[in-house]
Specification:
The protein is 43% helix and 14% strand. The protein is of the alpha+beta class and 175 residues long.
């Protein structure tokens, strides 16, 4: 059985940057590689601790640039700290290039404050529901939530963004 090699995050980051209209600067490549290799969403401080030679202003600019380009997303925490994720869930599925940023859920550990991305929440909920009672006409999670919104607040309300955050303890903090 062949052991799979870990992804080359620097090469992957450079490739993703070259697929955009952005310049693939050394700082952007390093920041994106750090986010791609992260197991959870990184705060600015987490990235700075990983890239100790990079100054704060360059790091902020790189994070903003990557976020604006859709190569990373910014998660606003209730602790007033922004965290960043580069969508490393795509790597687990074998994709070498990220798809357009999409809405997904997050899990926040209330002990260590780490934030983890939960990809494809709607698909996973529908798959779970399908096991108990298969319904081919089941609405997407977005459609279901839109119906709840209109039933609660009335017609005319239209969502354009949905945020889902589950709070609890991560695997490391739970024991």
């Amino acid at each position: 059985m062949k052991k799979t090699d870990a992804p080359d995050y620097l090469a992957l980051a450079e490739s993703q940057l070259r697929d955009t209209t952005l310049r693939a600067t050394d700082a952007r490549i390093k920041v994106l590689a750090a986010l791609l290799g992260a197991r959870y969403a990184f705060s600015h401080q987490d990235v700075q601790d990983t890239l100790v030679d990079m100054d704060r202003v360059t790091l902020y600019r790189a994070l903003d640039c990557l976020t604006d380009a859709g190569l990373a997303h910014k998660i606003a925490g209730d602790d007033r700290v922004f965290r960043y994720n580069a969508g490393s869930e795509h790597l687990e599925h074998g994709d070498q290039h990220p798809t357009q940023q999409h809405q997904h859920g997050h899990f926040k550990c209330t002990r260590c404050a780490k934030v983890f991305c939960i990809d494809n929440v709607g698909e996973k909920l529908l798959a779970t529901d399908a096991k108990s009672s298969p319904d081919p006409s089941a609405a997407s999670l977005r459609q279901q939530l839109q119906k709840v919104l209109q039933a609660t607040l009335g017609k005319g309300f239209q969502s354009h963004e949905i945020e889902l955050t589950i709070k609890g303890w991560c695997a490391d903090c739970a024991h």
